[in-house]
Design brief:
- The complex is a heterodimer of chains A (807) and B (61).
- Chain A is α+β, with helices and mostly antiparallel strands and 807 residues long.
- Chain A contains 28 helices and 28 strands.
- Chain A folds into six domains: 1-69, no CATH class; 76-163, Alpha-Beta Plaits, CATH 3.30.70; 174-304 and 419-475 and 748-796, no CATH class; 310-414, Calcium-transporting ATPase, cytoplasmic transduction domain A; 479-518 and 626-746, 3-Layer(aba) Sandwich (Rossmann fold), CATH 3.40.50.1000; 524-623, Calcium-transporting ATPase, cytoplasmic domain N (3-Layer(aba) Sandwich).
- Helix content of chain A is 45%, strand content 17%.
- In chain A, strand 3 (88-92) and strand 4 form a beta hairpin.
- In chain A, helix 7 packs antiparallel against helix 11 (280-301), helix 8 (212-233) runs parallel beside helix 11 (280-301) and helix 11 (280-301) runs parallel beside helix 16 (470-489).
- Chain B is mainly alpha-helical.
- Chain B starts with a helix and ends with a helix.
- The A-B interface holds A 51, 53-54, 57-58, 108, 111-112, 115, 129-133, 174, 177-178, 181-182, 185-186, 189, 192-193, 196-197, 211, 213-214, 217-218, 221, 299 and B 6, 10, 13-14, 17, 20-21, 24-25, 27-28, 31-32, 35-36, 40-45, 48-49, 51-52, 56-57.
Chain lengths: 807, 61
């Protein structure tokens, strides 16, 4: 029955001119250039027709692969006046200014192309990119082009904008960022001028300006300048420490706030009563440098896209049914009781009740499980579920802001608090602040008992200022920030510093096989069986395109040059296969047992069988392709870590993998997501610190169970699952280097810690003797901070280059 | 130094301080104004944009 009828697969090493990927399954040659798929070629064609080929000369292969079949999106809602209004910032007659988020932009070619959109369509007046925000601002003439046309054009050239509810709520962040700049500017201005006014005092210790009036003027101007620093710039320190104090917690901001306040009060006393210049220069200096440090820290977080809220999963608009007529309205104006219509692959925007007889939903956005759930009338569908059957009618039962996913999101946020590491700010605060407070008091006491109360007061204040723990705090935040930036540059995006700490402590790595060790997009596929007609191939393509199962995805990609048809009676049999009717042809795709083939001797390859109208026509044979260098990486990791492999697949390839996983003892095949979680739990109970490395879709629960979860993704703009770290697939070959690099974190931190301790001891010993004048304190403070930051920067870059990571 | 001379000296000092503060405040206002306009919103793209060559294709012709 089964003949060996191999479909020809062009095997070639040419890489795609557009995206740079190897042309493995198909190769299209157009104008003497190789393309990996029709999508890439059509993007090239559009650009070539419009004389925009400069795109390819700025960076090599700047495009993104168009191979992964894109989910069809309906942009009809972009024609609704209400929706357009949400996007338009500014209107000048027919000229509309809009802002869109395009997560795909990644290089200078992208910037160039996106800023030359006016060459692609005459209706677009100008476009401007904000790269770090991944945003584009477009001015267009509404008489010549519509918002929908622009979005479709962007999608055509490979830059599909992100149109979710979150993007409408995006504006507020910006303003906050600006207020930070104002604060830095004002603090810097005040700091500089107060320092200038203090100069005579530094050098002549007040004698030069012995005359009261001039001295007084200087002091009062300084006081005036320090007020905006205290009342405006330092606001965030006071607010956050007050908030923590109310919850009986100590945080980083507290000693800073305390130091600022005490310095100000003492200076106020000195100026008003003693007629002396206080320490206002130091006070404004602290504020200025702390704000500057935070600014740079925040900037390094810009590269990360973790800052997503639940709103980024929800659509902007929703199709409501009013008296049987479809009407597209913005989600924000949807109310409870509205009947809505959801199409295939659309996300349910609010908790709703199903009105149809039956529908399939994919809850992976909410739960991380890629299992599909069948729903019946009057059952509740939670927001965030994606419809996998063709159409469904729902009735909204809760507004989006009260939906389950929102609550889930909020709960997760607050849980991310606990941590117990040596270098946490809390511990530094607790120990350091109490020691410093104690030292200050005892020095003061000593001088008071020695009969020199004035020196005592100076000692008290200078001890507190000079020992301000900001050098310590900055060293850890800055080192972490710098490390995160370097890792991000190498394709590893770590959520925050706490995760870095967990990676550092890990001793066990658990791998997922499919999609992690193997490349889901590069498997070798053959169809073995009888000759199929085009209609039959189209039917198989249409059905396989509906499932998100990796094997189904592979088949869909293999057949993606066929036309898409609608599938009726779609059914999913979990762990077995899928079935449906396409143009009257009944198609079943699934495992051999389910299809009804007698199991043969176990083959070393994965096979997916096809049944058309009760006839078993053959099977797809899928040979996994391991990622390049993956075995080198495993060998190197093996010496430091305990390696485990959990795979949802059969044990076909056990032989290949045993050498790296304790001779097969640490391998488990046919795992369900629950098995993976349980396995990790067992490892943890045995005292191991586990890092899970998976491809993100069905590993979400395992990620949560493990100390840290690394999701390996093919491209940056994929759906980001609930994980702590995102690793670009091509960077997996550098995993061992990056893990070693992270383990060097302690060396850097301890070096900085020791140096700042030395600074503090020197400073303190002078301060306690009452010998420290404001000039020394004011110079020592920034110098210690800057040198610590410098040392941490140099060290982290040195280790990065030593581990062959790009800086 | 007579009291008059002294007052004169001091007055000059205070005048100078006032002037320098005014100049500095001018710069601060300019900074705040520019920030408000959004000039500091994007600190990365302009550095890339400046390196683009315009009309490369036409040169080739």
């Amino acid at each position: 029955m089964i003949d060996q009828l191999k479909k020809s697969v062009a095997s070639t090493s040419a890489s795609c001119y557009h995206c740079g990927e190897l042309c493995t399954t198909t190769k299209i040659v157009f104008e003497e250039k190789a393309f990996c798929c029709a999508g890439c070629q059509s993007v090239y064609q559009i650009l070539a027709e419009n004389n925009l080929c400069n795109y390819y000369s700025i960076t090599q292969n700047p495009g993104l692969s168009q191979q992964i079949p894109k989910v069809n999106t309906y942009y009809d809602f972009l024609d609704e006046a209400q929706v357009i209004e949400k996007f338009v910032h500014f209107k000048e007659g027919a000229l509309y200014h809009i802002k869109l988020r395009i997560p795909n932009m990644h290089c200078s070619s992208c910037i160039w192309l996106l800023e030359n959109l006016n060459k692609l369509h005459a209706g677009i007046v100008s476009s401007r990119v904000t790269f770090l925000e991944r945003e584009i601002q477009i001015v267009f003439n509404a008489n010549e082009v519509s918002l929908k046309e622009i979005v479709v054009l962007l999608k055509k050239i490979g830059y599909e904008p992100n149109l979710t509810l979150d993007d409408l709520l995006h504006q507020e962040e910006k303003k906050q960022n600006r207020s930070q700049l104002y604060k830095i500017g004002i603090a810097g201005f005040c700091f500089g001028n107060i320092m200038m006014l203090s100069f005579p005092d530094y050098f002549a210790s007040g004698k030069f300006l012995n005359d009261g009036n001039l001295n007084l003027t200087f002091n009062y101007i300084s006081l005036g300048l320090s007020l905006p620093v205290l009342l405006y710039c330092a606001q965030e320190f006071f607010i956050s420490s007050w908030q923590h104090l109310k919850q009986r917690r100590i945080n980083i901001d507290m000693p800073i706030a305390l130091a600022i306040l005490i310095t100000f009060l003492v200076s106020l006393y000195m100026i008003l009563v003693q007629n002396k210049l206080g320490f206002l220069d130091s006070m404004s200096g602290i504020v200025f440098f702390m704000l500057l440090g935070r600014f740079f820290q925040n900037r390094s977080y810009h590269y990360l896209t973790f800052k997503r809220s639940y709103a980024s999963y929800l659509p902007i608009s929703v199709n409501t049914l009013v008296d049987g007529n479809e009407k597209n309205i913005p989600l924000t104006s949807a109310v409870i009781g509205d009947e809505i219509l959801i199409r295939q692959h659309e996300v349910v925007p609010a908790d709703s009740i199903l009105l149809d007889d039956k529908a399939w939903f994919d809850y992976s956005f909410v739960s991380g499980e890629s299992n599909w759930i069948e729903k019946y009338p009057n059952q509740i569908i939670y927001a965030g579920a994606m419809l996998t059957s063709s159409k469904a009618q729902l009735k909204i039962s809760k507004t989006p802001s009260q939906s389950y996913i929102t609550q889930l999101w909020n709960r997760n946020q607050s849980e991310k608090y606990a941590s117990n590491t040596f270098f946490t700010a809390e511990k530094i605060n607790l120990y350091f602040s109490s020691i410093v407070l104690l030292l200050g008091f005892s020095a003061c006491m000593y001088w008071v008992f020695a009969g020199q109360a004035a020196i005592g007061l100076t000692a008290l204040v200078t001890v507190w200022i000079v020992a301000c723990p900001c050098a310590l705090l900055l060293s850890s935040t800055f080192t972490n920030g710098n490390l995160l930036t370097i890792l991000a540059g190498n394709g590893m995006y770590v959520k925050n510093a706490e995760v870095l700490e967990k990676l550092k402590q890990a001793n066990t790595l658990v791998f997922d096989k499919t999609g992690t060790l193997t490349n889901t997009h590069q498997a070798e596929i053959d169809f073995i069986g009888r000759d199929l007609s085009v209609q039959e191939y189209e039917a198989i393509y249409a059905l396989s395109n509906l499932s998100i199962h990796p094997l189904s995805r592979l088949i869909a990609r293999f057949l993606n040059h066929y036309t898409q048809h609608e599938v009726q009676n779609f059914c999913l049999y979990e762990g077995k296969g899928i079935s449906g009717t396409v143009n009257g042809l009944q198609v079943q795709i699934g495992s051999e047992k389910w299809i009804g083939v007698k199991p043969k001797l176990s083959s070393s390859f994965t096979r997916v069988f096809i049944k058309l109208n009760d006839e078993i026509v053959g099977f797809f044979e899928i040979k996994n392709q391991y990622r390049s260098n993956i075995f080198d990486v495993l060998t190197k990791l093996k010496s430091t870590y305990q390696l485990h492999l959990l795979s949802g697949d059969n044990d076909a390839e056990a032989q290949t993998l045993t050498p790296w996983f304790a001779n097969g003892k640490n391998i488990q095949f046919n795992c369900l997501p629950e098995d993976k979680t349980a396995y990790i739990k067992r490892l943890q109970q045995a005292g191991n610190k586990v890092v899970m490395i998976g491809d993100g879709l069905n590993d979400a629960n395992a990620f949560e169970q493990a100390e840290a979860g690394i999701a390996v993704i093919e491209s940056e703009h994929n759906y980001l699952p609930a994980c702590d770290i995102i690793l670009k697939a091509e960077s997996l070959s550098k995993l061992n280097l990056m893990m070693n690099y992270i383990r060097k974190l302690n060396v850097i931190l301890i070096t900085c810690f020791v140096i700042s301790i030395v600074y503090n001891i020197v400073g303190l010993s002078f301060a306690m003797q009452g010998k420290l004048t404001p000039v020394v304190a004011a110079i020592l403070m920034p110098i210690s901070t800057i040198s610590i930051v410098g040392i941490s920067f140099v060290l982290s870059n040195y280790f990065a280059s030593k581990h062959k990571l790009s800086i | 130094m007579t009291p008059n001379e002294f007052l004169l000296n001091m007055g000059v000092m205070i005048l100078l301080i006032g002037c320098s503060l005014l100049v500095a405040i001018g710069f601060l206002v300019a900074f705040v104004f520019n920030t408000k306009q959004g000039q500091f919103d994007d600190m990365h793209t302009p550095s890339v944009r400046i390196l683009f060559e315009d009309k490369k294709e036409e040169k080739a012709n």
